[in-house]
Design brief:
Elements lengths: L2 H28 L6 H19 L2 H9 L5 H18 L3 H24 L6 H19 L4 H6 L8 H24 L12 H14 L9 E3 L5 E4 L2 E6 L6 H20 L15 H15 L3 H15 L7 H8 L13 H20 L7 H13 L25 H20 L3 H6 L4 H10 L9 H9 L6 H15 L2
Parallel strand pairs: 1-3
Antiparallel strand pairs: 2-3
Helix pairs in contact: 1-2, 1-3, 2-5, 5-6, 8-14, 8-20, 9-10, 10-11, 11-16, 12-13, 14-15, 14-16, 16-20
Length: about 500
């Protein structure tokens, strides 16, 4: 066997072990008994020790030196293995294992603190997580920026300076649009009860409508909806609020976007570095375009309205036009995952600034709740009423996912570009969506984005799909046009 063959055989086992670790995380959020959290922390630490040892194995450097790629796919495999190896060798094994142990147990502590609305119960653990992430960032960054080093794990090549500049350009137009919409006539809320099991049945049907393959996945309940896995096992979760069915339905569609990305990757890349989504920004582009540009389009919501009438009976909405406005209702809200498209990116920008300050050491953990509440009141004009609507709402910091939040807005930007290209490629798209047929849209995304997996760099795959480099303008233009029409601006 050649050096390349030896390396890929070794890597395949590493990828398989990584999938096992991911399955443990999925179980922790869905099925694991509450009393098992400390033991699960030990289990996660143990498997992280095995994975870290494999990722830093000295033979990898030797194989990389001797390997001769036969084609662009092999070259891309080597590029990703080299990047992972160089990153892993900078992090001490003891630190990697401690991070795995602490963040695993921290998720349970966060969940209990959130349920009890007690920030103080979570802050000591959060302080420990932040200290470990700063230690990790220092090992990775060298003389560079700590936050950039962490963000590179989720969006290779991105920097806080570039992302911050993009946010600065986006904020004025978002704020102007928000002001115009909120000054228009308000849209009513749903006032009806939607049973849990009926919601879950429709959620499963929506997942199928968007192309989710239940022979290679499953739908479960979780506190914070997420997608987990890749290859031929990509699972999704949702949550149910019986007075707000859109919480369930659009969480499901969102996570289906993530899962379909993983399931749509070329099967030749299975259990290799190319067999995963290339970045969280590109991943988020899939979930957001499924959820918003397709799932919240007036064409698709017209079909959805008829489906809900059949399933739930009369729920007090006069017709498809009113239903589309209710689905896309704009209002300041506490919860990022429930935010409308106009407010969503403002939530992300706030978290981006706060976590950068935490990693730089400019914001102490004990001052974080006050900083969150002050910033939220300034940005949204509403005072946070309880911690589960504020600092405790997101799972990310308990998991140690610092640098992850900006990829949500980057994903929206990519989705805006992809939507523009999709509309040009499929001119009759609205007629299809009005029939509940998403196959042309999801097929175009699978062909132009999903099947490539990690073959290209993040911005490169978007550029290839769209024919030009991504910018924030298509997203902002789409938002202005959509909400201008819905609100008569």
């Amino acid at each position: 066997m050649s050096a390349y063959d030896d390396l890929m055989a070794f890597q395949r086992e590493t990828e398989a072990l990584g999938q096992i670790a991911g399955r443990l995380g999925w179980d922790q959020e869905t099925m694991m008994p509450r009393g098992a959290s400390e033991q699960r922390g030990e289990e996660m630490s143990a498997i992280e020790g095995v994975l870290h040892a494999r990722r830093t194995d000295p033979r990898i450097a030797e194989w990389l030196e001797d390997a001769r790629p036969a084609d662009p796919v092999a070259a891309a495999q080597l590029r990703l293995i080299r990047r992972s190896h160089e990153r892993a060798t900078k992090i001490p094994a003891a630190l990697a294992q401690r991070l795995a142990r602490v963040t695993s147990t921290a998720q349970g502590i966060w969940a209990e603190a959130r349920a009890a609305d007690k920030v103080a119960d979570f802050l000591p653990t959060l302080a420990e997580v932040i200290a470990l992430k700063r230690e990790e960032a220092a090992a990775l960054a060298g003389d560079g920026d700590l936050y950039d080093a962490l963000m590179d794990d989720y969006e290779p090549g991105a920097t806080a300076a570039v992302i911050g500049g993009m946010f600065d350009r986006m904020r004025p137009r978002l704020v102007r649009l928000r002001a115009a919409v909120l000054a228009a006539a308000p849209v009513p809320k749903l006032d009806h009860h939607f049973g849990e099991q009926a919601q879950l049945r429709f959620a499963r049907d929506l997942a199928t409508t968007f192309g989710y393959d239940f022979t290679r996945g499953r739908l479960d309940l979780a506190v914070h909806p997420f997608s987990s896995g890749s290859g031929n096992d990509a699972r999704i979760t949702t949550r149910v609020v019986e007075t707000d069915p859109f919480n369930c339905f659009y969480s499901t569609i969102h996570e289906v976007g993530h899962a379909c990305y993983e399931l749509g990757i070329d099967q030749d890349y299975l259990l290799t570095p190319l067999g995963n989504g290339v970045s969280m920004g590109v991943h988020e582009s899939q979930s957001r375009i499924y959820e918003n540009q397709i799932g919240r389009s007036p064409a698709f919501t017209g079909w959805m309205f008829r489906q809900m009438l059949d399933r739930f009976g009369d729920f007090g909405v006069g017709g498809p036009e009113e239903f589309a406005r209710i689905v896309n209702r704009v209002q300041p809200g506490f919860i990022r995952t429930e935010a409308d498209e106009v407010h969503y990116n403002l939530h992300v920008m706030m978290r981006f600034d706060l976590e950068r300050a935490l990693i730089r050491g400019d914001l102490a953990v004990e001052d974080l709740e006050a900083a969150w509440n002050d910033r939220f009141a300034a940005d949204f004009g509403v005072a946070v009423d309880r911690p589960s609507h504020g600092l405790l709402q997101d799972v990310h910091w308990s998991c140690g996912l610092f640098g992850y939040f900006p990829t949500y807005t980057l994903g929206n930007v990519y989705a805006g570009c992809l939507h523009l290209a999709l509309r040009e490629a499929v001119p009759g798209l609205d007629d299809q969506l009005a029939r509940g047929d998403t196959s042309a849209a999801t097929g175009w995304l699978r062909e132009n984005v999903q099947r490539h997996g990690g073959l290209y760099e993040p911005r490169e795959v978007i550029t290839l799909a769209c024919g030009e480099a991504p910018t924030e303008e298509p997203l902002l233009d789409y938002l202005d046009a959509k909400f201008g029409a819905l609100y008569g601006l």
